[in-house]
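Quick question, first post here. What does this chain look like in 3D?
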Amino acid sequence: MNAFRSVILIGVLFALAAQAALAQEREPRPPAISVTATGSVDYVPDIARMQIGIRAEAKSAAAASNSVNQTAAQVVAAIERQGINQRNIQTSGYNLEYREPQSPQPQPAVMSTAATSGGGSYVASEILQVTTPVGSAGAVLDAAINAGANTSYGLTYQSSNADALYRTALARAVASARATAQAIASAAHLTIVSVISIGNAQESSGPAPMAMRMMASGPAPVLPGTDTVTATIYAVYAVR
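> Answer (accepted):
Ran it through. Tokens below.
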């Protein structure tokens, strides 16, 4: 009999727990306002980062590699003479590949010749990433070209004060989110009580990369213009 009563009691407890959970699910959620807001800061970049390349082609792998290595050493030395520390010069890529010989163009039967194509060749390339102050970028670029650099993968900008700029943009985004939520609440005759949740996702935008000039007759015109740091936040406010 005691065991039977225990089973009944357990069943009753489970039923009460299920009813309580169901009641909680049916309770209306407290009103809330969700907003997304963006803040931004304009600034003048003070750091330039360029990708400078050296490319050479030869009949043997050793000859192609030696040519690139010698030219790269000259380019690095020329950059260092512009006052750029070696820690700001990084080899970001090195490649050696074999290039098949090109097949001769087919000729009409009456004009056929016995000419044959030569053997293939090896192409070696190295990419140097150089970080410089914007004011020195033009002179560094020309020095690298004059020392033998013959390819480029563009020029980008950044700020030495990036963290502080982003925090400022983030603060503006938070203020904008609050103002937007307040406007919505006022229009709906509600009052903001507290912040339920808030999160952010970093964004940024900048000028398009600048291609390297292959012929240099004077300092390259490196103009950073104005860049923008942007921060976006997502916030949920409790209202009543």
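Residues 102 and 115 are 13 Å apart (CA to CA).
The beta strands are 32-43, 47-58, 89-99, 121-133, 151-158, 192-205, 227-239.
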